Amino acid sequence: MRFGFFCKSFRRDVTRVEKLVASIERHVAGDVAGILSVPRADLALFRDRIGSSCLRLVSDEEIVGKRLKQNWRTQQLVKLYAHRLGFADLWLVLDSDMAFIRDVGASDFVDETGSVALVASRWLHLYDRHETELREYVRGQRELGTLSIEEARSLADGARPDGEIPLSSRLVDAVWSTSPEARIARIRATFPRSGPELFYLPAAVWTRESLRSLETDYLEPRGLTFDDLIRHSPWEGTWVGEWELRRRLPGRWPAESFFLHFASDDAIERARAAGLTTADFAKRYVGLQLAAGHQAIEAY
Questions:
Q1: Beta-strand runs (E) in 17-89
Q2: pLDDT value at position 167?
Q3: CA–CA separation, 261 vs 218, rounded Å?
Q4: Which of 58, 53, 63, 21 shows the shortest CA–CA distance to 43?
Q5: Contact between 83 and 212 (Cβ < 8 Å)
Q6: Cβ of 221: how many Cβ atoms within 10 Å?
Q7: pTM for this one?
Q8: What is the CA radius of gyration of the chain?
Q9: Band (166; pLDDT cuts 50, 70, 90)
Q10: Measured on CA atoms in the order 266, 236, 210, 85, is the torsion positive or negative?
Q11: What gap in Å lies between CA 62 and CA 58, rounded to an integer?
Q12: What is the pLDDT of residues 262-281, one digit of tens each?
């Protein structure tokens, strides 16, 4: 299997991407396909700053096939359409504010049978939200109850058909300004299942086969596109994760997140005060994410 990375960025985060690239060059060995997508207007800037690196530069417009207004939703569209590049069979979906903290390769995400990890956790790996539990997890003092493959495959409700995406929801959202968080439940209504709320980020592991299946088996027969998914519920990681559960995880196995996310400087300072080091985090994670839009600290 061809293993890779995909990162969507833009000019505001170029210094973060420099740190990400440095961490890839330090910790990743072997034949890895890396793609960095930025707006066409930012290509020259990124070429100047990262040069000929481990990530191949492409434009958002090349991937999606049209001009995009840069915002949270269009970033998700670029990630979803990236599989059409055919650059890899499986890839880690990276954000600009991530960095690797230990050596990593395809074997971290693919088992001996060729089955690929699917991040699907009962816990959001956000230190700010679950500080005590994640600190104990890092120190080996607790486990997080990761789904077994049998449990994950039992969640899909085969008695109910796939749900539809009504055009009327656009009118409802326009009138009532439905929040993005309120729309998450729509995804489970589209792909019915039982079981707990699950989290598919940070650092999802996607496969080309999965994204192609979502397009050809669900979207195209209904005359829909990834754009329609994001309008209905702007959570690309949840769409892909729930689709995989709906398919009963063919060639996949459930895993905890491979990255730990810090959303504030205060959380980083508390983790430091607790004595946690990158070596400690590396026992459970391959990297850290320090939220670019909310922090001054750029390295743990």
A1: 33-38, 56-59
A2: 77
A3: 31
A4: 58
A5: yes
A6: 9
A7: 0.94
A8: 19
A9: confident
A10: negative
A11: 7
A12: 999 999 999 999 999 999 99
